[in-house]
């Protein structure tokens, strides 16, 4: 008799526990922030990037946990064909692409920027086309979508006053952001919300214009093979 009572009590408690668990709200999934790039990685890559763009009109800066290479539109693109790269640009960008090509932990986000002249939609489209021109060089080096993303921001992120010709020239640029591969989508998400776009540091004076002929597809491939 005593054993039967204990068994009945155990069954009762078990059933009550199960019923209680069914009524409990499901735990919410916790979204962990993207891993940060280590200072050791930044210290290692920064001098290598500086060497890759040495002698060019590109700029390099640390921005929080990123390394950012900035290419001004002036001197990088054909003035008569605004989304066509000049040959002078191929050397430095190909060397940057080669640098990250074999490091599977590194990813690249290419951002195109424009000044505020003209229609906003046209500026965004042009900035995207210019960013894609840089992205093409990285694709030739073997980077795929899981390590390479592109976005045109138009005039959303000025780094100088659009009221002057010099300021507008500074705002027309392409930025190459290097980060960890597992941080790439989170990084892109930051630039997909205009209200939350990170602040941009003031740039150095505009580079001198380099006169050259527009680049062709064959020249892009030749430059990639040479590097």
TrEMBL record:
SUPFAM superfamilies: OmpA-like (SSF103088)
PROSITE patterns linked: OMPA_2 (PS51123), PROKAR_LIPOPROTEIN (PS51257)
Keywords: Membrane, Signal
Gene3D superfamilies: OmpA-like domain (3.30.1330.60)
Domain OmpA-like: 64-182
Comp. bias (Low complexity): 204-216
Pfam family, one: OmpA
N-terminal signal peptide: 1-21
Region annotation Disordered: where it falls in the sequence: 204-227
PANTHER family associated with the record: EXPORTED PROTEIN, STATOR ELEMENT OF FLAGELLAR MOTOR COMPLEX
Protein name: OmpA family protein
Organism ancestry: Bacteria, Pseudomonadati, Pseudomonadota, Gammaproteobacteria, Pseudomonadales
